[in-house]
Specification:
Layout lengths: L1 H7 L3 E7 L8 E9 L2 H4 L3 E4 L7 E3 L4 E3 L14 E9 L1 E2 L3 E3 L1 E4 L5 E5 L5 E6 L11 E4 L5 E4 L4 E2 L3 E3 L3 E9 L6 E4 L6 E3 L6
Parallel strand pairs: 2-12, 7-15
Antiparallel strand pairs: 1-2, 3-13, 4-5, 6-16, 8-18, 9-17, 10-13, 10-16, 11-12, 11-14, 11-15
Length: 196
């Protein structure tokens, strides 16, 4: 149901309801989940896809190489690139967003292994994340993302079924994962609009 709804309504408005930890009435924020495009995502990272790129013919014309779709940032000489396999379990919406993470020493890329859309929630690099800083995108199922160093992002939000991803990120010494609560520790509700 959720994926059909996403495909039918490419521009969706979701309501983010922030409940202050100090009590009181919820504060409502509106966040549109927009289709993932390179232009819209540029301040957060790279979109990894072949669309819009001209391939290089290699292996005597038997292979098309889509070259340099994203830069792997390993944070200098002490870092090195890691290739990982992630298996993400699906979330059900509405989903309470409580925290965001960032990788201060390098980039992190997610490339899906099957054609399944997923939701990407991000905020620009900085010391904290407020509900109004959040932006959300939905992939077309064939796109991956490469988060730039320091960009805040939610963990993988797979929908309806589990999904597998190749993940390329930084290995090496140093602390490379910061996690912060959104705002003052409030919970943010991410939901799709009613199907009607």
């Amino acid at each position: 149901y959720q994926l059909d709804q996403i495909k039918r309504r490419p521009f969706m408005t979701t309501v983010l309801a922030t409940t202050p930890t100090s009590g009181g009435a919820p504060v409502l924020h509106r966040l549109s989940i927009q289709p993932l495009t390179a232009e819209a995502f540029a301040r957060f990272g790279d979109v990894i896809e072949s669309a819009g790129h001209t391939p290089i013919q290699i292996n005597h014309g038997m292979t098309e190489r889509y070259h340099a779709l994203a830069h792997v940032d390993t944070g200098g000489a002490e870092g090195h690139a890691l290739i990982n396999l992630f298996h993400a379990l699906p979330y059900e919406l509405p989903l309470r967003l409580e925290e965001m993470e960032r990788h201060p020493l390098g980039s992190q890329a997610f490339v899906p292994l099957q054609e399944t859309p997923f939701i990407v929630v991000v905020a620009a690099a900085g010391d904290s994340v407020q509900p109004c800083d959040l932006q959300a995108f939905v992939t077309n199922g064939r796109q991956g993302v490469n988060y730039h160093r320091g960009v805040w992002h939610h963990s993988l939000i797979a929908l309806e079924s589990s999904a597998r991803f190749i993940v390329v990120d930084r290995g090496g010494p140093g602390h490379n994962c910061d996690v912060v609560a959104i705002g003052d520790g409030s919970r943010v509700l991410l939901e799709l609009p009613d199907a009607g």
